[in-house]
Amino acid sequence: MIPEILVSDLRQYTYCPRIVYYHYCLPQIRPVTYKMTAGQEAHTQEAGRERRRSLRAYHLADGQRYFNLSLESESLGLRGKVDMAIRRAEEVIPVEYKDSPGRMGKHILLQLAAYGMLLAEKWDLPAARGFVYYIPARRAREIPLTPELQAEVRQTVAHIQELVRAERMPGPPSQRRKCEICEFRRFCNDVV
User: Does the global pTM surpass 0.85?
Assistant: First the structure.
């Protein structure tokens, strides 16, 4: 039986599929880096600040905020913990904090879309948009959660499930510069 895929695995798989392979197929090896620890601390601090702010950063006049909300869906094969969810009468909005300067890669879009899908299922409300809140810049960027993006989430979940089922190590990423900062670099003997 394949376990439910973590939403964070979508982000990792898009960055480098080998990270997900190590997570599920070789779970005893999971290096923790300074960057990971610092990122977790930044998320915790930001949630504290967010509780004191209005929803102005998201251009919203109303909404109930939920922090570190655990979500799971058997039908989607996903589970995770969204940094913040904003529930309004007519919609639900996922918010992800990022301790980065503001770059937006496919891996972040998939993560945000997956949280939107999980929230929509949980509360039976549409999730047509989400926000990425960039901690260093103290600004939020609105992201449309399109049907195409949601289809890509489903497809990526299927790819991860197949990778886990087959227990076959994927090839290295096409951009080898990713390997320079990867916590698993020493386990990939074909990457210099």
Answer: yes
